[in-house]
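can u do me a favor
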C-alpha cells in the first residue's frame, strides 16, 4: 500500500525487445517510463526538483513557480506541484498537443502558450523575463542539478539492479539531458566501460522531446564527457519506429521514444554482444491529436 501517488514514481519495468530487434548475443531492453504516474520519465526530475527545493527552503507554499516546457516536464511539474499545494505557471509553444495542455490544466497549473515560430527557446525567454520581475521562481530544469540527480538516485540504480549489473550500453534521447547525465554518472561509477549513447535529431528534423540545442541554449547541466557517442535520427525513422513499437511490441509511446529506439536498434545491429537499455520516455496517448500514428 502506498501513502501517495509520489510513491509510484520510479521503479519502472524493463521489457525485452522481441520483434523490432532480435540478434543472438545482443539483448535490447526498454525502460518503460510511461509507467510513472504522470506518464513520463519527467516525473522523476519534477519530484526531485520540487522536493529538494522545499527541503532547502528555497520555495514554500507562497512561492509562484514558472517553467518553460515542451510538454512532459510540465505535466510532471503540474502533478507534483499540485500534490504539494504549490502555484505553478507553465510556458510552452502554442503548437504543443492539446492533450498536454489539457493535462497540465487538469492538475491545476496555469498554462501560457508562446509563439510556435520561436519554439521552446521562445518559451524559455518568456519565463526568464517574468522571473526577472521578482514575483516568480524558476526551477530551471535546464540548469538545475536536481534534474540530473533524480536519475543518479533512481534511474541508474534501477537499471544496474534490474540487469543484474550486466548492462553494457545505455541509450537515451537528449532534451534537457537530465536523464542521460544522471544515469551516466551512476553507471560509469559502477562500470566505466558501460557505453552511454545520446540521441539527437538530424539537422532540420523536428522530433518533440529531442533537441540539438543552439550553443546559447545548451542546457547548463550537460557535460559532453559523460556521453560516449551521439547518434542522430531523422523524423521519418522516429515516426516509423513509434508505430512499430505500438504494433509489434505493444509499447505505446511518443516520437522521442521512437527516435531513441531507432538509434538503439542501429547500435544493436553493430554489436557482436551486449545488453542495451533504451529509455521509452512517455506514453503515446498524449500524441493522439497529432499525426504521429496516422498512416
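np, heres the sequence
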Amino acid at each position: 500500500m502506498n501513502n501517495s501517488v509520489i510513491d509510484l514514481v520510479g521503479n519502472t519495468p524493463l521489457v525485452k525487445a522481441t520483434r523490432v530487434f532480435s540478434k543472438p548475443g545482443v539483448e535490447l531492453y526498454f525502460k518503460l517510463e510511461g509507467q510513472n504516474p504522470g506518464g513520463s520519465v519527467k516525473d522523476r526530475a519534477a519530484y526531485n526538483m520540487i522536493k529538494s527545493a522545499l527541503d532547502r527552503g528555497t520555495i514554500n507554499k507562497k512561492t509562484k513557480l514558472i517553467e518553460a516546457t515542451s510538454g512532459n516536464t510540465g505535466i510532471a511539474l503540474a502533478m507534483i506541484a499540485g500534490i504539494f499545494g504549490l502555484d505553478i505557471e507553465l510556458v510552452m509553444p502554442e503548437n504543443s498537443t492539446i492533450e498536454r495542455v489539457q493535462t497540465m490544466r487538469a492538475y491545476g497549473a496555469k498554462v501560457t502558450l508562446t509563439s510556435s515560430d520561436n519554439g521552446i527557446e521562445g518559451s524559455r525567454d518568456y519565463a526568464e523575463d517574468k522571473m526577472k520581475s521578482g514575483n516568480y521562481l524558476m526551477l530551471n530544469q535546464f540548469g538545475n542539478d536536481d534534474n540530473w540527480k533524480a536519475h543518479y538516485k533512481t534511474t541508474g540504480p534501477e537499471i544496474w539492479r534490474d540487469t543484474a549489473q550486466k548492462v553494457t550500453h545505455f541509450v537515451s534521447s537528449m532534451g534537457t539531458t537530465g536523464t542521460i547525465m544522471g544515469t551516466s554518472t551512476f553507471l560509469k561509477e559502477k562500470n566505466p566501460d558501460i557505453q552511454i549513447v545520446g540521441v539527437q535529431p538530424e539537422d532540420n528534423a523536428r522530433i518533440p522531446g529531442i533537441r540539438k540545442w543552439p550553443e546559447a541554449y545548451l542546457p547548463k547541466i550537460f557535460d559532453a564527457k559523460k556521453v560516449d557517442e551521439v547518434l542522430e535520427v531523422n523524423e521519418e525513422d522516429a515516426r516509423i519506429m513509434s508505430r512499430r513499437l505500438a504494433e509489434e511490441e505493444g509499447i505505446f509511446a511518443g516520437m522521442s521514444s521512437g527516435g531513441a529506439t531507432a538509434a538503439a536498434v542501429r547500435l544493436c545491429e553493430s554489436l557482436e554482444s551486449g545488453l542495451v537499455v533504451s529509455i521509452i520516455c512517455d506514453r503515446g496517448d498524449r500524441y493522439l491529436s497529432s499525426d504521429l500514428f496516422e498512416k
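The mean pLDDT is 94. hope that helps!!
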